[in-house]
C-alpha cells in the first residue's frame, strides 16, 4: 500500500510540474500581449496629443487673413 501511494504522489508531482510550466507559458503570453497592445494603441495616442495641436496651428495659419 505504501508503494502505491508513493507512485501516485510521484505521478501527481510530475503532472503539477507540467501544469506549472503551462501556466507560466500562458502568463508570459498574456504579458507580451499586454506590452504589444500598449505599444500599438497607447503610444500612438500619446504621440497624437503632441501632433494634433501642431497640425491645427499650421492649418489655421495657412488661412492667413481669410478668416
Task: Give a short summary of the structure.
This protein has 67 residues and is an all-alpha fold. It is 90% helix and 0% strand.
Explain this structure:
With 67 residues, the chain is mainly α. It is built from one helix and no strands. The longest helix has 60 residues, at 2-61.
Principal-axes geometry comes out as: rod-shaped
Distance between the termini: 95 Å
The arrangement of helices and strands along the chain is H
Number of helices: 1
Helix/strand structural class: mainly alpha
Roughly how many Å is the radius of gyration?
Answer: 29 Å
Work out the helicity level.
over 70%
The chain-level mean pLDDT equals 92
Taking pLDDT < 50 over at least 5 consecutive residues as the criterion, the unreliable ranges are none
Largest sheet composition = none
Our estimate of the beta-strand percent is under 5%
Number of separate strands? 0
What would the keywords be for this entry?
about 70 residues; mainly alpha; 1 helix; about 90% helix; about 0% strand; rod-shaped
Write the SSE topology.
Blueprint: H1 2-61
Amino acid at each position: 500500500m505504501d508503494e502505491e501511494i508513493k507512485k501516485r504522489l510521484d505521478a501527481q508531482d510530475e503532472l503539477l510540474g507540467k501544469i506549472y510550466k503551462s501556466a507560466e507559458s500562458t502568463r508570459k503570453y498574456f504579458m507580451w500581449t499586454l506590452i504589444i497592445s500598449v505599444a500599438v494603441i497607447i503610444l500612438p495616442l500619446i504621440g497624437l496629443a503632441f501632433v494634433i495641436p501642431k497640425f491645427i496651428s499650421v492649418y489655421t495659419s495657412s488661412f492667413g487673413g481669410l478668416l
